[in-house]
Write a structure and sequence with these properties.
By secondary structure, the chain is of the alpha+beta class. The protein is 31% helix and 27% strand. The protein has a 5-stranded antiparallel sheet with strand order 13-10-9-8-14. The longest helix is centred in the middle third of the chain and has 15 residues, at 69-83.
């Protein structure tokens, strides 16, 4: 199915036990969700719990046959878009580790709501959990439909490809054009649809 599972060896006539906790394997720390789905630990308890909740919300074959980085990032992108509901709610970004709590607060809440900062936090952590390098970025963005720059958060994969899950329009409603804002460079997005990004902080 594309998911990784870990079992303790059977003993004393008992069946192998499925692991659902943090475990170090071959020098790397893995985290296993409640369903036993494993991923590379993102280095923070809240962050690991956030990714685990996302992993457990996925269909059984979500990563099946997905071998390229872009394919895996697309699974994450689609899963985050399906897991969260866009709403302009407050988020604190006053610490270097703000994104761990932001991701967990969004996906663990009953309504699973958040704005671009929450989406970017969860997306970036989930991409890292796949072993893919990325940065979570806070900055400014100007869309073709807007008169000026506004605060925004997005993800940059391998220091090149933008993965932008959601914009808030002027009324605070989430909008996204998936074909335009997925796995494109800043230059490509500047040309079509005409969105300009200004980075302020990378995490």
């Amino acid at each position: 199915s594309g998911f990784t599972y870990y079992f303790n060896k059977a003993k004393d006539g008992k069946a192998p036990a499925l692991v659902s906790k943090s475990k170090k394997i071959s020098g790397k720390t893995w985290y296993f969700s409640a369903k036993g789905r494993g991923f590379y630990s993102v280095g923070d308890t809240a962050g690991d719990k956030a990714v685990a909740l996302l992993w457990d919300s996925m269909a059984d074959n979500s990563f099946g046959g997905k071998t390229t980085e872009e394919d895996k990032v697309r699974v994450v992108f689609d899963s985050v878009m399906g897991a969260l509901v866009c709403k302009n709610i407050p988020v604190k970004t006053d610490t270097d580790a703000w994104y761990y709590e932001a991701a967990y607060n969004a996906i663990s809440s009953p309504q699973r709501m958040g704005k671009c900062y929450h989406y970017a936090a969860l997306t970036g952590l989930a991409i890292r959990a796949c072993g893919i390098d990325c940065s979570i970025i806070i900055g400014q963005a100007k869309r073709p439909s807007s008169s000026g720059f506004g605060g925004h958060a997005w993800v940059l994969v391998n220091d090149k490809y933008v993965v932008d899950t959601v914009f808030n329009d002027d009324e605070g409603k989430g909008i996204v054009e998936e074909g335009l804002y997925f796995y494109k460079t800043y230059d490509e997005l500047s040309e079509n649809p005409g969105t300009t990004y200004k980075e302020e902080n990378r995490y």
